[in-house]
Write a structure and sequence with these properties.
It holds the Pfam family PGM_PMM_I. The chain is α/β, with parallel strands linked by helices. The protein contains 15 helices and 22 strands. The longest helix has 17 residues.
């Protein structure tokens, strides 16, 4: 059936399909997305598509509707059932098949969505398929005259767990007590499978799969959602804490004191470990990541490459440069030996291996990777992002050492501090990130910039 361009564009985003179930997403819409995706993949030579889904109440029904659209176009479906997003990427990699993951990640319970990839977990974005799918949803997806495809089921959880463990040297691990907050998301499914074969005393929190998220949002990027884990780490005497988001493709780390470890510090740690294995390699980092990351990579003889924010840009750079690893400030971590895709679980295993390979507590281990103070991302609702950005640039004109526009504006100041202002692609927001040598410098810059942005 044909649909309005407005209704389609509200759901088919830059990197995925996402919307409110029953209002923007229903079985008929998702069936047509499956059919259009199947047509696109069939034209590329694919014969089957692998499908996984998270624990949201709507996910099984929607994934079945998608499968019906795929098989109606003559392609087979391999359904892996409950899965984390990186587990779906694993299945896409080993089966050499395009994939569809039903999840809305950290969004509230009323949402659901679809993350699509080509064979080998290669991303599908606007320019690599989503625009074509959107156009067909508006015009109506053509029928297929051939025989329908088949549906089979395959459990890949144990294979996934063995694979991610095989990517990290874990044989010399000392025993660790690890607190994990799964946020009622897919970490409750994958963590026991992965950690079960390791010398880990697991202290689980919110491992029950529940797409209504009864305890807190499954979004560890918000400090409010780390509070329970921080308390658990302190009370249990754990060596560290790990928090996964709803689809468990991102992982956040808390040290033995209950203090958050920045994703930039985790990026630097994993980069150092990868460079030790493969000296001189390329490491990708987005422009919001701490300057400590490219500094450390260069000091270790690696090649830092800076890119825009967003997984499609990171994955493109990973493929073009042959980078061994890439990290983002949002705790997405990308690995060449994981098909260039992101895996929070692999990043977690690197942190565990680094901690268990020496005797210091995590806070001391990470101190060398955390060189600067940072604001974190601060959002402001604005009527005109371009006008507010121009006002900030004018105010800092005399002090700016340099200004670049790779993604929004990044302003370097003479004292070594820098800030980035970039507009959201989907909301009327300006996102501010500030880094400086001291927390006092960061606070002063944040106050000055926000006074202009929010004037």
């Amino acid at each position: 059936m044909a649909r309005s361009a407005e209704s389609v564009s509200a759901v088919v985003k830059a990197y995925d399909v996402r919307g409110v179930v029953g209002e923007q997403l229903d079985a008929g819409f998702v069936r047509d997305v499956g059919a259009s995706f199947a047509r696109l993949m069939r034209d590329g030579g694919a014969t089957r598509i692998v499908i996984g889904h998270d624990m949201r109440e709507s996910s099984p029904q929607l994934s079945q509707a998608f499968a019906a659209g795929v098989t109606a176009q003559g392609l087979d479906v391999v359904h892996i059932g409950l899965a984390s997003t990186d587990q779906l990427y694993f299945a896409s990699g080993i089966l050499k098949a395009p994939g569809a993951m039903f999840t809305a990640s950290h969004n509230p319970a009323r949402y659901n969505g679809i993350k699509l990839c080509r064979a080998g977990a290669k991303p599908v974005g606007q320019e690599t398929g989503l625009a074509t799918i959107a156009a067909e949803l508006v015009a109506g997806v053509p029928d297929f005259d051939g025989a329908p495809g088949t549906v089979s089921e395959r459990d890949v959880l144990a294979d996934y767990a063995a694979f991610v463990r095989s990517r990290v040297e874990l044989s010399a691990m000392r025993p660790l007590k690890v607190a994990v907050d799964a946020g009622n998301g897919m970490g409750g499914h994958t963590v026991p499978a992965v950690f079960g074969a390791l010398p880990i005393d697991l202290v689980p929190l919110y491992f029950e799969l529940d797409g209504t998220f009864p305890n807190h949002e499954a979004n560890p990027l918000d400090p409010a959602n780390l509070v329970d884990l921080q308390k658990l780490v302190r009370e249990s005497g754990a060596d560290l804490g790990l928090a996964f988001d709803g689809d468990a493709d991102r992982c956040f780390v808390v040290d033995e004191r209950g203090e958050p470890v920045t994703p930039s510090a985790v990026t630097a740690l994993v980069a150092a470990r990868e460079l030790a294995k493969e000296p001189g390699s390329t490491i990708i980092h987005n422009l919001i990541t701490s300057r400590a990351v490219p500094e450390l990579v260069a000091e270790l003889g690696g090649k830092p490459v800076r890119t825009r924010v967003g997984h499609s840009f990171i994955k493109q750079q990973m493929a073009e440069t042959g980078a061994v690893f890439g990290g983002e400030h949002s705790a997405h971590y990308y690995f060449r030996d994981f098909w260039g895709a992101d895996s929070g679980m692999l990043a977690a295993l690197h942190v565990l291996a680094a901690l268990a390979g020496q005797d210091r507590p995590l806070s001391e281990l990470m101190a060398g990777y955390d060189r600067y103070a940072a604001s974190g991302e601060i959002n402001s609702t604005v009527a005109d992002a371009a006008e507010r950005t121009a006002a900030v640039l004018e105010a800092f004109g005399d002090r700016a050492e340099s200004v670049d526009r790779l993604d929004g504006v990044t302003v370097d100041l003479a004292d070594g501090a820098w800030f980035n202002l970039r507009a959201s692609n989907t909301e009327p927001l300006l996102r501010l990130n500030v880094e400086a040598r001291t927390a006092e410098q960061v606070d002063a810059l944040v106050r000055e910039i926000l006074a202009i942005v929010r004037a």
